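Protocol step 4 of 5: obtain the predicted structure for the target chain.
Materials: sequence only (see below). No template structures provided, no constraints applied. The aim of this step is simply to have a reference model before the mutagenesis design in step 5. Sequence pasted as it appears in the construct record:
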Amino acid sequence: MAYFADLHIHSCLSPCGDDDMTPANIAGMAKIKGLDIIAVTDHNAARNLPAVQKCCEAYGLLLLPGMEITTKEEVHLLGYFDSVDTALQFGEALKSHLPKKKNNPRFFGRQLVMNEEEEILDEEEALLIGATDLSLKAAAEMVISFGGVPVPAHINRGSNGLLVNLGLMPPEPFYTTVEAARHLPCEESALRGRHVLHSSDAHYLGDIQEREHALQLKEGTVQELLRWMRMRKEDA
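Step 4 output (structure tokens):
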């Protein structure tokens, strides 16, 4: 069955995300655009996921809990988890790997923690936009240790894309799923045997994806989506 998805969206917790990217606004816009599944993947943090979960439930959307981790090579790696609680636990464990600096809101942007009623609960002080001290391999292994699936983000776009940054796909671990920018060229060997996600990396409400990218899943659950991501393409 086809499920339309956008699995890379930033909320106002990401300093580069617009303040209008509240949990309620994200879920509402995803519903307007006809999506079935979304993932909110803030930089190195997961604190807005509880509110996003409540908003998705209200709109009849499936939330895949996620995060975008910046490795010490400056590669962006998406981590997807089986529950909001697991993502929050991962975020707590990741804190010790963040830069030992505070965020400067005037320079990097605010990092807002919100509830489902669009009330500001807190402003994250840690510098979320910086690189962690984890290598790409270590970050992927950490995601897996929490039962999650590591997915290299926009591998063919920007200085934080794996192929742009490193020049090749590492042999280990074998990433069964990658994210690629649809309208840019991508080395075919990097996609072979892998599922390929095309997501928006939205930082503004209008950039959330339309009904463009459908995933063929047996059922619309987080468990099935993670199972599909873990399987090599030819085995799925």
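Step 4 remarks: The chain has one domain: 2-235. The chain has a mean pLDDT of 96.
Proceed to step 5.
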